[in-house]
Amino acid sequence: MTTVATFDSPEEAHLFRAFLGAHDIGAAVLDEHLAQWIWYYIQAIGGVRVVVAGPDAPRAANLYREYTESLRRGPHPVEPVRWWLPVLLLSILIDGPLPIFGRRRVKARDADERPAS
């Protein structure tokens, strides 16, 4: 077994193991339980290791580079939905309450009952 990558958390290691599995490379995660029990020694033990069989090591190392590069690029940007503008305009047009800003309508009788300051 050859160590291909080390990670700071078992979750990250399992994500990479699943990535390797999607490319038909069998991998195992080692030291995950030790990292969960004694988490403050994670750097001392060398992190959570992902290991593969010897013949698959060069291909897995290339896939690790591809995996880290895809993490650096991040997801494709998505244009946010601008739902608040139509809600604000509609609230102003119908003279309704604006729950977004916490405004409430004051009834005429409430204004008459208030003591003068």
Description:
- With 117 residues, this protein is of the alpha+beta class.
- It has a domain at 2-73: Alpha-Beta Plaits, CATH 3.30.70.
- It has helices spanning 10-22, 32-37, 57-73, 84-93, 108-113, and strands spanning 2-7, 27-30, 48-52.
- It has a 3-stranded antiparallel β-sheet.
In short:
The chain has helices spanning 10-22, 32-37, 57-73, 84-93, 108-113, and strands at 2-7, 27-30, 48-52. By secondary structure, the protein is an alpha+beta fold. The chain is elongated, with a radius of gyration of 28 Å.
Keywords:
Alpha-Beta Plaits; 117 residues; elongated; 3 strands; 3-stranded antiparallel beta sheet
List the helices and strands and how they pair.
Blueprint: E1 2-7, H1 10-22, E2 27-30, H2 32-37, E3 48-52, H3 57-73, H4 84-93, H5 108-113
Antiparallel strand pairs: 1-3, 2-3
Strand arrangement, largest sheet?
1-3-2
Rg from alpha-carbon coordinates: 28 Å
Shape: elongated
Number of helices: 5
Give the CATH level 1 class of the domain at 2-73.
Alpha Beta
Number of strands: 3
CATH architecture descriptor of the domain at 2-73: 2-Layer Sandwich
Unreliable stretches: none
Order of helical and strand elements? EHEHEHHH
N→C terminal distance = 82 Å
